[in-house]
Structures are given as structure tokens and as C-alpha cells.
Amino acid sequence: MECQECHERPATLHFTKVINGSKTENHVCEHCAKEKGYVSYGEEAYSLHDLLSGLFNFEPSSLNEQTSKDITSQHHLKCLKCGMTYQEFTKVGKFGCASCYDAFSERLNPIFRRVHSGNIVHDGKIPKRIGSNIHQKKQLNEHKEKLQELIQSEEFEQAAQVRDQIKEIEKGIKPNGEGEV
Amino acid sequence: MSLQQFINEAISPWMKEEGPDSDIVMSTRIRLARNFDQTPFPIIAKSQNLEKILDFFQQEYHHQSFNNYHDLEFVKMSDLQPIEKRVLVEKHLISPHLAENAELGGALISKNEQVSVMVNEEDHIRVQLYFPGFQLEEALDQAFELDDWLEEKINYAFDEKKGYLTSCPTNVGTGMRASVMMHLPALTLTQKVNRMIPAINQLGLVVRGIYGEGSEALGNIFQISNQITLGRSERDIVEDLQSVVNKLVEQERKARHILVEQSELQLEDRIFRSCGVLQYSRIIESKETAKCLSDVRLGIDIGYIENIPKTILNELMVLTQPGFLQQYAKKTLSPHERDILRASLIRERLKLEK
Ligand SMILES: [Zn+2]
Ligand SMILES: [Zn+2]
């Protein structure tokens, strides 16, 4: 199989890309893979630059007033924690810190969909130690919502019970220490 | 240093073991990407942040043991010579990126070299585990245990919806890359592998040829790995990979069988010619080396060649890379000098078996 980019060397990297919901096959040689950004750091077999540039390039061409406003606002998206702007992110293709995920969240799902075959929600391992809190936090939120409902409907006796349950759960949650070393 | 001694140091202990399906599957690897939750990722972190992480690893994990992985050793990239780093790269213990770009990088490596935790690479932490042969489930179990062990002392960047947060959006979610290294000479020779690749890609798996100095696939060695990390669990991903690898193993065995039946003499001729080249050449490039090693390994698996150990392909593929050759010579070598040393090292290595 020859490389689809240079048509000279044999293709040695083979993968699919999802563009607008349809899968395309890609067969490139190592040289072109590096040149065209299909691989980063010689390990990841994926063209993120390609994906990102493809994603952003088409936006300005289909302008109307509303979307042009959106684009202006997207330039102002910035992660307050690490200082990275959304624009920088699209250029580098890497996040600056964990908080970038929140800061740019409104823009990220289309990217995740493209990179991960349409998926946007994690389904896999949860950290053993801090993960137990995630489960409890979920419970806590549910109880708090219930408490509000009970107070609204003036069912104070039940509300008191739920409030006690909330206290119990809160006791069980370990303080989420700073992740800094 | 004698060649035997050099080889003993050059080849990771785990590589000398024979794993399941080792006639076709050379090795299995699981990699997990993890980050500290309050520290910027290495790409933009300040040096003091990265130094803090290095110190943390030095203090908490240097000389520790975990399960079968004894006496973990933490090394800082800044303490290594370029050639030492290159050798770690050729042993796949660290990535080229860590060796070349991460001045404040480090690696925590177990004595048997089965575990390597890269520190301050693209992510703060990249846990890697290697297993001989085809052992995806075992590798995943061990990776999870090691991950839990590290997490006892580290608050990972994790989000309920997005999973493990990584510097690159291609790794978010599980942060896992599972890969299997396969030797597929018969499927390549019969050109069947090209026809199978698109179907494998359709399952969200990536197929890669392995490289030496040039830009061509070497030695009929292919790496199959998962592309997607978000929205599917590690177990599901590994299951998919496992079924594809099983299929490839089955097809490769079938293709070998057919080759032997239909063109035994040509095959035998090809294998023994390659054997001759390795035993007698005086100058040999890495590309020819890979081709001949692949042939000889096939010859061993089929039973044509009996006095050479099976691990020779893995071993010499590692040993004949530029970094190792130069470490063996204890000096920098030009490509031509490397070709000469490569030929002589291979001849010597094969003599050890006589
Ligand atoms: Zn090409
Ligand atoms: Zn940030």
C-alpha cells in the first residue's frame, strides 16, 4: 500500500478519521505522518492539528453576523488558572492545565466527538481514592435537591431527616486535598 | 565488556521470557496518562512546578517496590548522558520526546524494566507496563494496581464527565493506550495484511509499522493499538484489541501453513539465505538486518532453524539500533561505522549459540 500523501514511500501508519460523522481511511508513511502532523512525539497515531485546523478553518467562511460574534467571543475564552487562551489551545492542540477543560468547555464537545468517534462522556476507571468522593458527591447532590423540594412543599419533618442524612454523607467525604505537590 | 555481558544489560529481563503466543506476538504494552490536579501541564508549567514533581517522585518512589516490580529507580533526564537516554529510548523505557525535549523530565523504572513511569513528559505521569507475548488482560490488571498505588499519594486531575484529564485531547478519558507488537511475516509476504488493515481501522484501532533509521516498515513488525480513549471503558477497549489480535494470530498461522505447503523450497531458500547474510556479512544496514531477522525468526518458528533461540528477533532488533551500537563501541559512530559494527555484533551473537 503506498502513502496517500507522497505516493512514493509505502504507507506504514493506518487509521480512520471521523469527519462529519463519516469515517475515512488514512494510510500514510512515517515521513508524511510527521510532516503533516499525523503523529505527535512519535507515538500518538492521530492528526490533531489536522482535526483542529479542519474544525476551525471552516467557521469564518460561513459567516453571518451572529456567528462572527461567536467567533469574537471565542477569542476571549481564557483559562484563569494557567492563562492559556482558547486561541492558543487551537494552535498548540494541547491544554495548559486541568482547568482549561472547564474554561473552554463550551467549545470542546465537537472536538471530542471528532477525536473519539462521537463520544463525549468518560466511561471507564474512576480513581480509587478520590473516586469514592465522586460517588458520595453524587449522592450528596441528590439529597440536597430532595431537601429543597421538601422545604418547598413544607414537609419539614422529612426535610429534617434528609438534612441529617446529608450531614452523615458529608462526614464520610474526605477533604479533597490540594493536588499540588 | 564481553558481548554476553553487554547483551545481558541491553536486553530487559522481561524480554527474555516467553509469553503466550510468542511465535507471533512479541510484546504487550499498557500506557496510562495521568496528571496532578492543581499543577499546570508540563507544556506550560514553570520550572519550579516541574522540579517539585521530580523531587516528589524522588522522595516518594525511589527505591520503593510494588508487587513484582522491585527496587524502582528514579532517574532525572538531566543526570543522563545523551547516549544513555538514547539507550532508554531504544529499550522503549522512555519516549523520544522525554529524552530530547523534557529537560525537567524523569523516569521511575523497575529493576526488571517491566514498569516505567515517565515524569513530566507531555503529561505529568505516564505509566507504562510491558509484558512478553500476548497478555493484555494481565497487563491491564497490573496497570490498574500500579495506578491505584500511585494514586494513594497523588491527587489526579479527574473529572466525572471527561475522565482523566490529559494535556492532549486525544488521550482524555481513560488516558489509556493499549498496544500489541506483532511479527506478521507470512501475512505480509502473501500481501494479506494490507487487505486486513482497513477492517481493523474500522474498529477504532490503529496499525503501525515499526521503524528503524529510515522511513519504511521494518522486519514485518506491526503495532496494533487503540485510537479512542473517551466513551469506552478500558476493559471494552482491551477486549476489542484482544479479539483483533486473536484473529491476526490465527490468520498468520494459517498463512504460514499455506506458505510451507505451497512453496516450501522457496521459503526455505529465503530463510537460509537470510541466515547466511546475518552469519557472514561484514557491512549491514538496519533495513536489511530487520528483513533477515524476520526471515530467521520465521525459520525458527516453522522449525527450519533449530540452534538459534526464539528471542533472537527481539534481541537483535534492539541491539542493532544506533544507540546500542554506540554504547557498545563507547563512542559516536558514523552510519557507515555503525553498519560495520552491526554486522560484527550480529556475527558474534550468532556464534554464541554454536
Ligand atoms: Zn508519504
Ligand atoms: Zn488552564
How does this model look, in words?
The complex is a heterodimer of chains A (181) and B (354). By secondary structure, chain A is mainly α. Helix content of chain A is 52%, strand content 10%. Chain A is built from eight helices and four strands. In chain A, strands 1-2 form a two-stranded antiparallel sheet. A two-stranded antiparallel ribbon of chain A has the order 3-4. In chain A, helix 7 (128-152) runs antiparallel to helix 8 (156-172). Among the domains of chain B are: 1-10 and 31-173, 2-Layer Sandwich (Creatine Kinase, Chain A, domain 2); 261-352, no CATH class. Helices cover 47% and strands 17% of the residues of chain B. Chain B has helices spanning 3-10, 47-61, 82-90, 96-101, 136-151, 185-189, 192-202, 234-280, 286-302, 312-319, 322-329, 335-351, and strands at residues 25-34, 73-76, 106-109, 115-119, 125-132, 158-159, 163-164, 176-183, 205-211, 217-226. In chain B, the strands form two sheets. Chain B has an eight-stranded antiparallel beta sheet. A two-stranded antiparallel ribbon of chain B has the order 6-7. The chains are: A mainly alpha (181), B alpha+beta (354). Chains A and B meet through strand 1, strand 2, strand 4, helix 6 and helix 7 of A and helix 2, helix 5, strand 6, strand 7 and helix 7 of B. Chain B: One of its GO terms (biological process) is phosphocreatine biosynthetic process. Chain B: It catalyses: L-arginyl-[protein] + ATP = N(omega)-phospho-L-arginyl-[protein] + ADP + H(+). Chain B: A motif (RDXXRA motif of the pArg binding pocket involved in allosteric regulation) lies at residues 338-343.
